[in-house]
Write a structure and sequence with these properties.
six-stranded antiparallel barrel, Thrombin, subunit H, seven-stranded antiparallel beta sheet, 4 helices, 260 residues
Length: 260
């Protein structure tokens, strides 16, 4: 009788312990599942897509300005960067060369632009939507990655982003900085970096949606945390038009813009 009572007591204790362990394990599984469902996907691109532009001008000068990247639109490929740092008074841009940020080797070169630029001076925020230069290329260079444009009509405040901070000491040529959308004002996007960055010749850098891995805009200017972007939809509109390839020596030239 005493033995039976002891056994019953032990079984009851073990059952309670087993139940507690099972309940704990179940709660852990539910918590992990809840976290995985709540966390947005992280689709940021990998590989070499960010480059240092080398600009060869008709007046004999060579400058290293801004930041460029490679872009895919359907089956077409382009070099993309900002327009506002182009020297329209230099007699024409003979060639734009994309250099590897780490070893400075030539990755791609461009002599044509896609259509003509809308403006040559950026005096108000309303003109930021025109701050881009697209240059067609026949194929994607080996060992590189082409980004795509996010064609969302508007971007909500708080949307999570990644910003590739150009960094020659990194193997990829950049380091990732977290960011969020502050406001989409149509002609300009305002975003905030969650970690401060000291911008150095980074106009043209893409801001990338965390969920889609696609470009929402190109850097126009900014401070350590607050950035203004040319919206990607401006590039999408340009790419949807049947425009001819125009030599950069003719299109990045003050007389050309004045004649439009």
């Amino acid at each position: 009788m005493i033995i039976d009572t002891c056994l019953s007591f032990l079984l009851m204790k073990l059952s309670r312990r087993a139940f507690a362990l099972l309940l704990c394990a179940l709660l852990q599984v539910l918590t992990l599942r809840s976290n995985s469902l709540a966390a947005p996907p992280d689709a940021r691109p990998e590989g070499r897509f960010l480059f240092q532009p080398k600009l060869v001008w008709a007046n004999g000068s060579v400058t290293y300005q801004g930041t460029g990247f490679l872009l895919r639109a359907g089956e077409r490929y382009f070099g993309a960067t900002s327009l506002h740092f182009m020297n329209f008074a230099a007699g024409g841009l003979l060639e734009a060369v994309w250099l590897d940020i780490v070893n400075e080797s030539t990755v791609a070169s461009f002599k044509d632009g896609f259509g003509l630029p809308a403006v040559s001076k950026f005096e108000t925020e309303a003109e930021i939507e025109h701050d881009f230069l697209l240059m067609p290329m026949p194929a994607l260079p080996k060992g590189t990655t082409a980004l795509q444009l996010d064609e969302t009509d508007s971007f909500a405040a708080g949307m999570e982003l990644w910003f590739p901070d150009k960094t020659p000491t990194e193997k990829s040529g950049y380091r990732w900085i977290r960011a969020v959308v502050v406001a989409d004002e149509g002609h300009v996007l305002r975003i905030r970096l969650l970690d401060p960055v000291k911008l150095q010749s980074q106009s043209g850098s893409p801001a990338i949606a965390k969920a889609s891995g696609k470009v929402i805009g190109l850097l126009f200017r900014g401070s350590e945390r607050e950035l203004l972007l040319c919206p990607a939809r401006s590039l999408t509109r340009r790419l949807s038009a049947p425009l001819p390839a125009v030599p950069l020596a003719e299109s990045i030239k003050q007389d050309t813009v004045r004649r439009r």
